[in-house]
């Protein structure tokens, strides 16, 4: 039996699947992975990405933050790929409980997924730090310098920066779904970004499946490991 046939059999016999995904889910849509050979961490800039994308840097140098953010973090022409579309289909069919994602691009919702736990926020949501008014991503993309609210406050993306805590409600819902799942599919993630990566340890169901281009520290815990592109694998199921 091939790996795809094993995966197909597990999916067929599952009723409460939870999908835990990382950057590798969106790379097939043209969104760069932070740590891949051509990702953000290997591109030249005035400061290291992890410094620019920190809370301290945002507060001290918002203009430089937004120069990087618009150029590197907003991929508004990206479209959902086979992985996003397959997961949305599984949700409509009633076998997928939810998607837990480390990505901030909103492509799962664009594909049609309804129950999505965004651990690191979303570039599509932005709020004024002074009055709390909501702004869509267009406000950020079309403005220059530091985007400002009508009240004069600075607009901040609803993206979890380095030094910031993950949204507590989202984490609680994600962990609860992982705990109650009968099958957990972990895909497109190196499982090295904490605390998010540690949430897979909450799983106590029947089958854990790992789909990733490279090996991860959690491969030994999985019932099935497939080293391939996420969209290509899921679309065959």
Automatic annotation (TrEMBL):
The keyword Hydrolase does not apply. The active site is at 120 (proton acceptor). Residues 1-237 form the Deacetylase sirtuin-type domain. It is an enzyme of class 2 (transferase). One of its GO terms (molecular function) is histone deacetylase activity, NAD-dependent. It is found in: Cytoplasm. The keyword Glycoprotein does not apply. InterPro entries: DHS-like_NAD/FAD-binding_dom, NAD-dep_sirtuin_deacylases, Sirtuin, Sirtuin_cat_small_dom_sf, Sirtuin_class_U, Ssirtuin_cat_dom. Its EC number is 2.3.1.286. Binds 1 zinc ion per subunit. Gene3D superfamilies: SIR2/SIRT2 'Small Domain, TPP-binding domain. Nicotinamide binds at residues 34, 104-105. Keywords: Cytoplasm, Metal-binding, NAD, Transferase, Zinc. GO terms for cellular component: cytoplasm. Its cofactor is Zn(2+). It catalyses: N(6)-acetyl-L-lysyl-[protein] + NAD(+) + H2O = 2''-O-acetyl-ADP-D-ribose + nicotinamide + L-lysyl-[protein]. Zn(2+) binds at residues 128, 131, 149, 151. NAD(+) binds at residues 23, 27, 34-35, 102, 104-105, 120, 189-190, 212, 230. Belongs to the sirtuin family. Class U subfamily. NAD-dependent protein deacetylase which modulates the activities of several enzymes which are inactive in their acetylated form. This is NAD-dependent protein deacetylase.
């Amino acid at each position: 039996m091939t790996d795809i046939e094993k995966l197909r059999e597990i999916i067929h016999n599952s009723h409460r699947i939870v999908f835990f995904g990382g950057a590798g889910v969106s790379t097939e849509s043209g969104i760069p992975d932070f740590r891949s050979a051509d990702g953000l961490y290997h591109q030249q800039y005035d400061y290291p990405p992890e410094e620019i994308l920190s809370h301290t840097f945002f507060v001290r140098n918002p203009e430089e933050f937004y120069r990087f953010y618009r150029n590197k973090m907003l991929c508004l022409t990206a479209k959902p790929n086979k992985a996003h579309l397959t997961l949305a289909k599984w949700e409509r069919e009633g076998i997928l409980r939810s998607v837990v994602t480390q990505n901030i691009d909103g492509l799962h919702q664009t594909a049609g997924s309804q129950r999505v736990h965004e651990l690191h926020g979303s570039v599509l949501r932005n709020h004024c730090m002074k009055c709390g008014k909501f702004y869509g991503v267009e406000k950020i993309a079309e403005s220059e310098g530091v985007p400002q609210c009508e009240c004069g406050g600075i607009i901040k993306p609803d993206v979890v920066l380095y030094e910031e805590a993950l949204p507590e409600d989202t984490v609680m819902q994600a962990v609860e779904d992982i705990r109650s799942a009968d099958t957990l599919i972990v895909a497109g993630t190196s499982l090295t970004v904490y605390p998010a990566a540690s949430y897979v340890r909450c799983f106590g169901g029947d089958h854990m499946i790992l789909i990733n281009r490279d090996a991860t520290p959690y491969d030994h815990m999985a019932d099935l490991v497939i080293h391939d592109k996420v969209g290509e694998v899921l679309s065959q199921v």
